[in-house]
Amino acid sequence: MKRFAVLILFACLAAARVPAQELDPGKILKPPTDTWPTYNGDYTGRRYSPLTQINRENVGSLTLAWAFQTHGRSLESMPIEVNGIMYISAGNEIWAVDARNGHQIWHFARPGAPVGGGNKGVAMWKDRLYMTTPDAQLLCVDARTGKMIWQIQVDDPALKAFGGVAPLVIRDHIIIGTSGDTADLPGFLESVDPMDGKIEWRWDAMPKKDDAVAWNSWPHDTNVSTRGGGMTWITGTYDPQLNLLYWGTGNPHPVENSEARVGANLYTCTIVALNPDTGKLVWYFQSSPHDTHDWDTVMTPVLFDGTFKGKPRKMLAQANKNGLFFVLDRTNGKALISEAFVPANWVKGYDDRGQPIPDPDREPKPDGVLVTGGVGTNWQAPSYDPETGLFYVNSRETMGVFYLTMPGKSAEGWAGRDFFLGSKSMLKAIDVQTGKIRWTADTEGRGGQSGILTTAGHLVFTADMSQNLVALDASTGKVLWHMYPGGSLGTGPITYELDGRQYVVFLDDSVAYAFALPLSPAHEAVESRSSHAASNP
Amino acid sequence: MLVAGLIVAAVFLLKAQEAGAPPPGPGGRNPAAEAAHAAAAERGRALFKDNCSACHAEDATGGRGPDLIRSTLVRHDKSGDLVGPVVANGRIEKGMPAFTSLTSGQVGDIAAFLQAQITLFDLHTRFGPYPNDIPAERLATGTVEAGKAYFDSHCSSCHSPTGDLAGIAKKYNPPDLEVRFLYPSGAPTTAVVTLPSGEKFEGVLQLNDGFYVGIQGKDGWYHSWPAKSVKVEVHDPLAAHAALLEKYTNADMHNLFTYLETLK
Predict the structure, then answer these.
(1) Among A181, A227, A294, A420, the residue to mutate for chain B (most B Cβ within 10 A)
(2) What superfamily does domain A2-532 belong to in CATH?
(3) Model ipTM?
């Protein structure tokens, strides 16, 4: 019997290793199993895997399968895994790693580029990888060899623009966003041709004259509406049936100054739905109209279908940096739920579209204003589990003091200063039918926030702020497994199954850790060291 | 897993986590070069005021002429290599005359001033060093009387204006003083750990993540236990500040600052 199992396993291994290693585009359309082919695993942004080998009954016995060292490069990227190869990125570098055992296949270091800098992850199209860099270049790299094919400048570093956002591949479009938050800098999304990087379309966060709604949401007695904000620095999501691309935009400029830009300031702090073939706006929902607190709206717009108040709905949910949780009908952007998930005193009420109405008394003032709700969460990815119907988010309750340091209409760049005092950190499980919090788990500590993964094993994987990697029961929040790896989890875990073994991978500081269940006897037989290495004649 | 009192450190993490800041420039600090650059920028400020401010405004944000803080050309300039030709030749078609009397050294000083202004506008408030550029008068918008009354009813059980807080306004710059009274940091949290045997250990709490408890004991040695195996009583000396933080109104904050600022 044992021998039979081994033979079957060998057959599976052989079958799995024969096909080409390039990405089958259909993989991104399905929930992730043997691959994790894009920033969030699939287009939905749910970060939910149907894998069940590791589950709440056995997760306590999780053990280290392998680790991969970058030898000191700080990682805040989401790895991807395609056909047994994992791609891990930082700054101007990519490592291709054997996803079964952690051995390096190749290391790409962009010629002449400095070492270091943040990166959120690579995207893959067929046999090519794409990444954006600290100096705002888009690189195209051969996934087989790690050799660079081309690079193009996508934004101006002299205006303090930088890259890092993981591109999103939609059919034959590479969709890229851009980052930067010091100088006034206009945000945009671009679609480029995967072959040569040629721009196919560009969508601008700054208003155009022929778009009256957006244009009239800014003053025009100065040039402030051309100058900036609305950066697109976290990867969006996509609905192939509706053919809509969803992306969040950052804060308006000058930051924290109200007087210089009276109005809603579209399309900053907004979830936009675009046609990915043309870049045309289909609908928008502004989660922080006239933002004066640096509430970016870049947090992942998570897509799922289901029944809402008895009606089938295509939904989009976002837990925002401004402390509010939104569920929208993603066909039209209409709000189904607008509800605070941490105390948020800057909200006066909600308008008829479910958008918050900011309280002018909580705008930054020269002598300081106390504001709650700030950095209720940040860019680290949340997760949605369709089995529990819960949306999981790492949250913080803070008290901010906001000072207006550059009043008046001529303000530019950063016109205020904020301090966040006190911080209660919790993982919250939000019921998407009501917006109410079903359970919370204390995640207090001195570290940073982490992203989340859920699986059909009824598990939530993340890290607490004391830097423990944890697995929790998805229904109750009970901690079922933990591990202290000594660093901090920059993004979120990913999972995949190869040769019948499920791995959960965490990029922690400069190391990738892959955890799995202890080897089964059949695996032991296959993976034990072969005789040529062990014998000593 | 709550470890209060360690939290102000999170302030900086909140900022550090934004977007993923770009990498630092090459090389470390060079105080001599920085001082020379600052001196050049100061000379440039005077030259800019005399020659350029009529159109570009004293702070270079523009007026009749373009805003130079956001100018792509100025932002790409290195020591006057791009600004210099524009100054020397003017942009006659746009109404800017040539400034032929300025020497290349003076143009370099103006370029240094413009770079300093760009840094000021970009980093005026955020990621730069903790600046002391919020004057006390700006924050002291309450009244001393109301601040003293608040102090007497909320703070005086632990603090005294003639004791531990004597001269406090001299010790901290204005925004630091305000942030510190709102939510101070630094006073260590202590804990008493009781073992199943009844033996007690007391000391500074080092670790309390829900899985382990670690303290530096009175004997100077570090001890730790699985959290479930012991009983832990945590004492956070700043707990009263944490409780007050949720209750302050903006007026309380302004009044208290106005009062504390008198303690010089």
Answers:
(1) A420
(2) Quinoprotein alcohol dehydrogenase-like superfamily (2.140.10.10)
(3) 0.88
- How many residues are recorded in chain B? 264
How far apart (Å, rounded) are the C-alpha atoms in residues A3 and A522?
8
CB contact under 8 A, B6 and A410: no
Taking contacts as CB-CB distances below 8 angstroms, the residues of chain A near B21 are 118
Contact B40, B112 (CB under 8 A): yes
Which residue from A minimizes the CA distance to B242? A422
Q: How far is CA B87 from CA A80, B40, B73, in A?
A: 51, 17, 12
Q: Which fold has domain B190-236?
A: SH3 type barrels. (2.30.30)
User: Which of B6, B10, B179 is nearest residue A401 as measured by Cβ atoms?
Assistant: B179
Q: Which of residues 124-153 of B touch A (CB under 8 A)?
A: 124-127, 133-134, 138-141
B121 at interface of A, judged by CB pairs closer than 8 A: yes
The C-alpha atoms of residue B19 and residue B126 are separated, in whole angstroms, by 14
Taking an 8 Å cut-off on Cβ atoms, the answer to whether A369 and B250 are in contact is yes
Q: How many CB atoms lie within 10 A of CB B196?
A: 9
Distance CA A437, CA A30 (A): 29
Residue pair A523/A500 in contact (Cβ under 8 Å)? The answer is yes
pLDDT in tens, A394-410: 999 999 999 988 888 88
Question: Topology of domain B30-123, per CATH?
Answer: Cytochrome Bc1 Complex; Chain D, domain 2 (1.10.760)
Active site residue A42: no
Q: What is the pLDDT confidence band of residue A19, given thresholds at 50, 70 and 90?
A: low
Tell me the pLDDT tens digit for each residue of A276-308.
Answer: 999 999 999 999 999 999 999 999 999 999 999
Q: Sign of dihedral through CA atoms A96, A153, A155, A302? A: negative
The two structure tokens encoding residue B212: 């382990």
Flag if A233 and B19 touch (Cβ within 8 Å).
Answer: yes
CA dihedral of A406, A407, A413, A417, whole degrees rounded to 10: 50
Helix (H) or strand (E) holding A427: strand A416-431
Nearest CA distance, A354 vs chain B (angstrom): 27
The ranges assigned to domains in chain B are: 30-123, 136-185+240-260, 190-236
**How many C-beta atoms lie closer than 10 Å to residue A243's C-beta?**
14
Extract the tokens encoding A196.
């040569």
Least confident interval from A426-430, B26-30, B253-257:
B26-30
Which tokens hold the place of B188? 């260590």
